[in-house]
Design brief:
With about 425 residues, the chain is α+β, with helices and mostly antiparallel strands. It has eleven helices and twelve strands. The protein folds into two domains: about 160 residues, no CATH class; about 150 residues, Histidine kinase-like ATPase, C-terminal domain (Heat Shock Protein 90, 2-Layer Sandwich). Helix 5 packs parallel to helix 11. The protein is elongated.
Length: about 425
Amino acid sequence: MIKKLRIKFVMTAFLSVLAVLVILVGGINISNYIHVVNESDKVLRILSDNGGRFPEREPEGSGRPGEEPPPGAGHGARIDSPELAFETRFFTVTLSAGGDIVKVDTDKVYSVSGETAVRMADDVMRSGKESGFVYDYRYLVSETSEGGRLVIFSDRGASLANFRSFRNASIVISLLGLLIIGGIIYLISGRAVRPIEEAGEKQKRFISDAGHEIRTPLAIIRADADVLMMETGQENEWISDIIRQTGRLSDLTNDLIALSKMEEGRSVLVTEDTDLSAMADDAVDSVKAPALIRKLNLTSDIESGVHVKCDKKAVYELMSILLDNAVKYCPEGGGISFLLTSKGRKAVISVENDTDESIDEESVKHLFDRFYRMDASRNSGTGGFGIGLSVALAVTEAHKGRISAEIPREGRIRFTAVL
């Protein structure tokens, strides 16, 4: 349990850090990309408004002492810089209203030929989009005064290269940071769960010690009751009740001690090759009488020749718990089905029964908790303590298996153990 708790702690902290990093790094990179796109579109709109050229601008200062700096200088606003026309590499393709090529201007770009420009413009027109990217070129489609189309391409390779470089660096640094943080979380997780581990160990020791101390008084009470019954020579309601309740307490004590030992790993399993098919037949036979008394329809489907290496006593107890649980909680006249089958090298034990209780998914999650009851008022009616399924869970985990509960349909519950 402590190991699982530590794993959950590490995973929760790790995923929380991962979520924060994804939001931060993703947000920064998305913001950078949007900035590149917006700056590109501003340049393209200036070109579009001026027929595919930058407007003529007068020099706004020669740089001599005492003169004002040009607009945008020192503010990072390159869109307002008089150098923008010299920094921007672009080309244009003009089309007529009928879609024919009218003019191709590649004077402001070196790496694109006229044929390439026409092909890129043709791809853009077929896409039907007004703006977007073709390779590292941002384009904008606008109307000309003659009713044709002007397609302007601006080279954003440098901006996109900076964006990609920052994106890749931020991802690598984030992953390295995540690994370092994950290691730190794992190292401190042991200290974080230590108080819970110590409390759990104290609880287990108390249960084990108290269980051993209770056994002796219970044995004495049972022996005294048997002596009284023999001396009276007749059936006595009160003595019979003492014997019955003492037996229940003895069973509970034994179950708690066994459960505590399994959880602590002190229970030594004597594993050997076991014929589960024969064991399942015996387990089903043991509940036929109580099932008949309650008019339950008990069916079994047991595959022959199913063998696993296990502790015979523990696995038989597992089968008995599941079958006994089904008999106790199945309404009178209901049905119970037992299934044993092999799946590769594993054995699957499944017990399904009708139920008159309304079971939700939240209740199913807690069925294997100690003393958990969906309806506490039924404790005395069923004769159990709500610890049987906890023992079943401990047995399967001790055999490196798993057990689960599910609701296959309304009014039906199924327990499946895989060994």
